[in-house]
Amino acid sequence: MPPQARSISSYFKPTTVVAAASASASTATAATPDKKKSTLSEAAKRAIQEGALAATTDGDGSSKENDLGEPSAKRQKVDSSPSGPKVADIFLKSSPSKSTVSPSTSRIGSVARSKTREELREKIAANPQWLAKLSLEIDTMGEDWLLALQDELTKSYFLNLKEFVTNEQKTKKVFPPAEDIYSWSRFCPLKDIRVVIIGQDPYHDDGQAHGLAFSVRKGVRIPPSLRNMYKEMHDEIPEFVIPKHGDLTEWARHGVLLLNTSLTVRAHEAGSHANKGWDTFTAAVLKVVTSRLAPGPSLSAASDDKVPGAKGVVFMAWGAHAAKMCAGVDKTKHLILKSAHPSPLSASRGFFGNNHFKKANEWLQIKYGPEGGIDWKALGAGEGGSA
Predict the structure, then answer these.
(1) Which residues lie within the region annotated Disordered (predicted)?
(2) How many angstroms separate the Cα of 297 from the Cα of each of 143, 252, 302, 312?
(3) Which of 31, 139, 160, 233 is 20 to 30 Å from the Cα of 7, by its Cα?
């Protein structure tokens, strides 16, 4: 079993030590209880397993598509471990007082959670090995995300992932550029999220990926899946002017989290960084979004009314991969919209006509009021015609 699989399974050791059982057997099978209660860490434990399994299916389920449904030269590598996790476990609740953490899992430990970026930087700096591996996260991740995910960063699986990615960056071409890996967190603060759109792999050709799922920089040819997304949006929202570019940054700024399951990829090798640990991390990201257990320093967690996203978010689950990632989301609190993937290979089998953009806003306006929807047409404003 690969190292990351062991790390994932360590989150799901027995949560209750049975009294009067064989002392030696209990000691061998139960992890040492964590003495420091950490809200996000508890959520992250429940967020791990689905991501590991979700990475095994391409696009809309077709073996000939990559994360965005584009034809790929190589299928994603699949972790065929027989002890693979169950998808729905990602969002299951557990008893905070009885949860356990593997002794092999590295953490910031018994110190209080940091409240600012600089405070966290100082704590990380106390361990030179951590600082060397986590400087990118400390420097480039949006602050509310950084603070919400701080316990995740020093876990063994993430430190191993960073070592792998850093070595890849030294010897191979890796996308997106390092400074763009966490652009989703800077453009779309945790507190502002209303809609989540899940991709699988970053684009793996030159000049495409810049940290937002489905998005490419201005001046880069619009990918086929994104063209289909634009077409569907125009059909649903006639005021939406199809832009001449594929940069979705404006959507992110309006509260749309565009998150790939893997945040990096080797150039021209689809799925090359799958099953290395990114799926574990992005599963924790999704758990933070749905629970809002650790909002940024500018927010108060005392009342749901003070946390903008606490009344629920919309998941647009396009294709089998995204559907699996959302499998355990509480449908009483959040809206899950499922359809075929926008890839040219599957768009005509249920993506076109799904009315997801319209349905999302109708639901958000009920939850958050008349101004609660996403201004989808902002992306094409002033573009003066389709591409």
Answers:
(1) 22-117
(2) 9, 20, 13, 20
(3) 139
Q: State pLDDT tens for residues 9-19.
A: 232 233 333 33
Q: φ, ψ for residue 169 (rounded to 5)?
A: -65, -30
Closest CA relative to residue 260, chosen from 283, 243, 276:
283
For the record, the structure tokens of 201 come out as: 């792999």
Q: Residue 316 is part of which domain span?
A: 175-296+307-368
pLDDT at residue 71, as a whole number: 41
- State the average pLDDT over residues 364-385: 79
Pairing verdict, β 174-175 and 265-266: antiparallel
Residue 197 phi, psi (nearest 5): -120, 120
Residue 93: the pLDDT is: 43
Distance of CA 380 to the CA centre of its chain: 26
What pLDDT score was predicted for residue 38? 42
345 backbone dihedrals φ, ψ, rounded to 5°: -75, -15
d(CA 210, CA 180): 5
DSSP letters for 30-51? SPPBPSS--HHHHHHHHTSHHH
What mean pLDDT comes out for the span 27-55?
41
Tell me which of 338 and 129 has the higher pLDDT.
Answer: 338
- Whether 44 is in a domain gets the answer no
Please report whether residue 184 resides in a domain.
yes
Residue 21 scores a pLDDT above 60? no
CATH assignment of the domain containing 271 = 3.40.470.10
The answer to whether the CB of 149 falls within 8 A of the CB of 40 is: yes
Handedness of CA 145, 147, 151, 154 (dihedral sign): positive
pLDDT of residue 91: 52
Residue 181, domain member (yes or no): yes
Q: Let me know the angle formed at the C-alpha of 281 by 280 and 282, rounded to the nearest 5 degrees.
A: 95
Domain count, the chain: 1
71 occurs within a structural domain? no
10 Å Cβ neighbour count for 105?
Answer: 19
Contact 330, 91 (CB under 8 A): yes
Catalytic residue among 201, 235, 247, 305: 201
Give 108-160 pLDDT, tens digit per residue: 544 578 999 999 999 999 988 898 899 999 999 999 999 999 999 999 999 99
